[in-house]
Amino acid sequence: MPLNEIFSVLAEGALVTIQLVAMALPLATAMAFISGLLRLSEHRALRWLAAIYVEFFRGTSALIQLYWIYFVLPFFGISIDAITAGVVALGLNIGAYGSEVVRGGLLSVDRGQTEAAIALNFSPRQRLWRIIMPQALVGMMPPFGNLAIELVKATSLVSLITIADLTYRAKSLADMTLQVEEIFGLVLVFYFVMAQVLTLAIRALEKHLGKGMDRGGLA
Amino acid sequence: MSDYAVEFDNVTKQFGDNVLFEQFNFNIRKNEVVSIIGPSGSGKSTLLRILMTLEGIDAGMVRVQGESLWHMQKGGAWLPADERHLRKCRGHMGMVFQHFNLFPHMTVLRNITEAPIHVLGQSKEEARANGLELLRTVGLADKADAYPSQLSGGQKQRVGIARALAMRPSILLLDEITSALDPELVDEVLEVIRKLAAEDAYTMILVTHEMYFAREISDRVCFFDAGAIVEEGPPEQIFNQPKHERTRAFLNSFLNI
Ligand SMILES: Nc1ncnc2c1ncn2[C@@H]1O[C@H](COP(=O)(O)OP(=O)(O)O)[C@@H](O)[C@H]1O
Ligand SMILES: [Mg+2]
C-alpha cells in the first residue's frame, strides 16, 4: 500500500483520537477541579467523597475501568456506546490525578495571601476565586501538561473496545499489509505531534496566567 | 458608645497547651497612636491578628468600635461570631503586613482597587480615582500599572499601606512593616506613616522595632513580654525612665546593636 494511502487511513484514526481527547479533557478538568476543591472543603463528608473518587481511580488500572464501564455496566442496565465509555473512563481516570494537582496547587499559595484577603474583607468565595485560584493556576500548568500528554497516550486503550482510533487503525492496517515499519513509524509521529501541540498550548496558557508573577519571590 | 476603638476584656488566648494571653486587658482610645514593643514571641503579632480575625480567642471579649468581635448577640444569647458578623467588624480595620502580602497577579492599581470594587461596591471609576489619589499620597503615582514583582521592598510596602487605606478603615494595624526592608528603604515607608499619624484620623496600633520612630509618633508605648504588658506610658517615660528592669534590659539590647 502506498505511503499516502497509509497516511490518510491513519489520519482518520488520528481524528478519532483527537475527538476523544477533546471530549475527555474537559471532563478530566472538571473532575479535577470539583474533586480537588472538595478535598479542601470544610465538610468532612465531601472531603471523603472526593478522596474515595481519587483513590479509586488512581488505584485501579485505566484499562479495567474502561472494561467495567463498557462491558460490565450493561449487566446493571447501564449501556453506553463505546465512544462515551472511552471518554468517561479516560476523563474520570485522568481527572483523579488532576485532583491532586489542583489540591496541591491551592495549598502551595502562600498563607499570607489568604490573610491579606481576609484583612481586605473579601468573602471566602472571593478569596478563592479572585486571590488564591489565579495564583495557584500558574503552578498547576506544568503538571496539567504532563497529564494532558498522559491522556493522549491513554486514548490508545479505547482501541480495545472497538473504537477505530489511531492505534486501532494502525494495528488493522499492519495486519493487512504487513508494512509495520512505515505504519508504526507514522503512528509515533502522529502521537508525538499531538502531544507537542498540547504542550505548547499549555505553556502559552501558563505564560498568560503568570503575567507579572515572579514566581518564588515574595510579593 | 464606647470611647475606645479597641478593648480586650479578660482575654485568654492559647496555642494548644501553650497559654499566651491570660486574663489580658488592654484598651485603645479613638485616634490614639499606640506602639507595641517587646521581644520576639511576646505576643505582639498575635494581638493584631486577633483584631484582624486571623486568630480566634479562647475566653474573654474583644470589642472593636464598641462592637464585640468574636461574639454576636442573637435572641439575648451570645453566640460565636459567624462569617457575616466578622465581615461587618473587619470593615473598621486595615492591616499592613511585615511581608507585604501584595497580590502578585495584579497590577499595583488593581491591588488597591480590587477590594473597594468587590467588597465595598464602589464603581470602577470611583475606585480607580481613589486608588490613583492614594498612590500619589504614597509617592507611587507612576507605578500604577507595574506588577509587585517590579517594585523595591519600600515601594511594595507603600502599596500595602495604600491598599489598606483604600478600604477606609478607622483602625490601622501595622505589624513590623519595616522589618523586611533594607535599611535604606525604611524611611520612605515611615514617612508615609508619619503623615497618617499627623492627620489624627486613625487609631493606629503599630508593632515596631524602630524605637526612634515609636518615640516620635506614639501617644503611648507598651512594652510586651510573655503575653503581658509589663510597662506602658507616654514615650518619654518608657524611653527615658523605664520603671521595670525587663523594659530597661530590652531597651539596652537595642542600644548595643
Ligand atoms: N499559629 C501558631 N501556632 C502555635 N503557636 C503560635 C502560633 N502563632 C504564634 N504562636 C506562639 O505564640 C507566641 C507569640 O507569637 P507572636 O504573637 O508571633 O509573637 P511576636 O509577634 O511578639 O514575636 C510565640 O511563642 C509563638 O510561638
Ligand atoms: Mg511578630
Automatic annotation (TrEMBL), chain A:
Molecular function (Gene Ontology), one example: transmembrane transporter activity
Biological processes, Gene Ontology terms: amino acid transport
Residues in ABC transmembrane type-1 domain copies: 14-199
Subcellular localization: Cell inner membrane; Cell membrane
Gene3D superfamilies: MetI-like (1.10.3720.10)
Family, per entry: Belongs to the binding-protein-dependent transport system permease family. HisMQ subfamily.
Name under which the protein is recorded: Ectoine/hydroxyectoine ABC transporter permease subunit EhuC
Annotated source species: Marinobacterium nitratireducens
Automatic annotation (TrEMBL), chain B:
Single GO cellular component term: plasma membrane
Manganese recorded as keyword: no
Annotated GO MF terms: ABC-type amino acid transporter activity; ATP binding; ATP hydrolysis activity
Database matches in Pfam families: ABC_tran (PF00005)
Ranges annotated as spanning the membrane: none
Topology class, membrane: Peripheral membrane protein
SMART domains: AAA
Keyword hit for Nucleotide-binding: yes
Domain of life, per lineage: Bacteria
Localization, UniProt: Cell inner membrane
The entry's keywords: Amino-acid transport, ATP-binding, Cell membrane, Membrane, Nucleotide-binding, Transport
Coiled-coil annotated residue ranges, if any: none
Span of domain ABC transporter: 6-251
CDD domains, per the entry: ABC_HisP_GlnQ
Family: Belongs to the ABC transporter superfamily.
Name listed for the protein in its UniProt record: Amino-acid ABC transporter ATP-binding protein y4tH
Organism: Marinobacterium nitratireducens
